[in-house]
Amino acid sequence: MSKFITFIAGAICPECKSKDTVALTPEGTTIYCVKCSYKEEKPQEKKSPQMDEIKVINIKDYLKDKK
Prior knowledge:
By secondary structure, the chain is α+β, with helices and mostly antiparallel strands. It has a domain at 1-43: N-terminal domain of TfIIb (Single Sheet). It is built from 1 helix and 4 strands; from the N terminus they run E-E-E-E-H.
């Protein structure tokens, strides 16, 4: 069985400047150039705060405490 390579269409390698030679590892964690030795880890996505971390204050309850 042959190994499939997922290329990033139109990508230009920052090192050798070749077009359409940048591919993605099967795990999807690293991009690399098939023509030279360039490798780069894919940036990690920043997670937004979860709903349970957001504190909600009812303005009516807040005003009751101020009186």
